[in-house]
Amino acid sequence: MINRRQVIQLSAGLLAYPSLGLHAAPVTSSSGTLPLIQRPIPSSGELLPVMGMGTARTFDTPGDPASLAKLTEVMKTFFDGGGKVIDSSPMYGSAETRVGDVLGAMQNAPPVFVATKVWTSGAERGIAQMEESARRMRVKAFDLIAVHNLTDWKTQLATLKRWKGEGKVRYIGITTSHGRDHEQLIDVMRSEPLDFVQFSYNIEDREAEQVLLPLAQERGIATMINRPYQQGALFGKSRGHTLPALATELDCSSWAQFYLKFIIGHPAVTCVIPATDVPSHMADNMLANFGRVPDAAQRAEMLRIFASL
């Protein structure tokens, strides 16, 4: 059985390989060459790799050499696995600063899709916070800024609309987590011109399938998925269980990839953002960036398998 804590053969190859190119090179496995999975942002058609990176808790570290070295290895592994989308927030302590430190020190870093959030009340405080986020993450203009957990969303979204028109940010959105505030999020999705929404969704927590994902598809809004492992709880259920044959059919070599491929299998999902500070876990996650995607029948079978664990 392949354990999440082991450096599996494919993950080891990914860690050792110097570069898979600028987010487009395929990975080779025992089943052949696996293509990169990309999804378009509906409002523009721009393609993004489906596997992104969250930074909550994992990048909230001191700026000491040991912490920076570890995060640099995580970031390099992310890029080597075809990653592009990095999501942060001022809510995440030092995470924005650490992202900026690591990217600033890397030579020849590939293009990055940098996303953060505004998490405060009041227009002036929102502007000040977003400008500070840009300094911390060392960007001139963000690819995406979203209103974090709908905090003073009318005020902050008004600023973001203006900033988008001025070219200070390319995409704007709204986020939530923990399954809270879904009714309010739905109202905003129905009434506002959003490019992105972010919320929780995984094989156990499927509430988003009821309204959020169909509505995003209907309204042409990209989706960024947080908490793909239910904060690690999913691994407690699959620990000790052998991967099913279906996993091989979907180019999955671990339970982590199995859970990520379930999410990616929903056609309304644009990008998933698991967070880790362990390079071997990042390599494992990034293998879900490649290969086959489950269809509706396979996703139903994945649900049956999960229910039997």
Mean pLDDT: 91
Total number of helices:
12
Question: Radius of gyration in whole Å, from Cα?
Answer: 19 Å
Helix-strand pattern, N to C? Answer: HEEEEEHEHEHEHEHEHEHHHEHH
Question: How many strand units?
Answer: 12
Structural category: alpha/beta
The biggest sheet amounts to: 8 strands, parallel
Globular, elongated, flat, extended or rod-shaped: what is the shape? globular
Q: Which CATH-level-2 architecture?
A: Alpha-Beta Barrel
Low-confidence stretches: 1-24
CATH fold assignment: TIM Barrel
Domain count: the total is 1
Q: What level of helicity do the residues show?
A: 25-40%
Distance between the termini: 15 Å
Polypeptide structure, described:
- Helix 2 packs parallel to helix 11 and helix 3 (95-105) runs parallel beside helix 4.
- It contains 12 helices and 12 strands.
- 40% of the residues lie in helices and 16% in strands.
- The protein has a single domain (9-14, 39-307), classed as NADP-dependent oxidoreductase domain (TIM Barrel), CATH 3.20.20.100.
- It is of the alpha/beta class and 309 residues long.
- It has helices spanning 9-16, 65-80, 95-105, 123-137, 153-166, 182-191, 212-219, 233-238, 245-249, 255-264, 279-286, 296-307; strands at 27-29, 32-34, 38-40, 47-49, 53-54, 85-87, 113-118, 142-147, 169-175, 196-200, 222-226, 271-272.
- The strands form 3 sheets. It has an 8-stranded parallel beta sheet with strand order 5-6-7-8-9-10-11-12. A two-stranded antiparallel ribbon has the order 1-2.
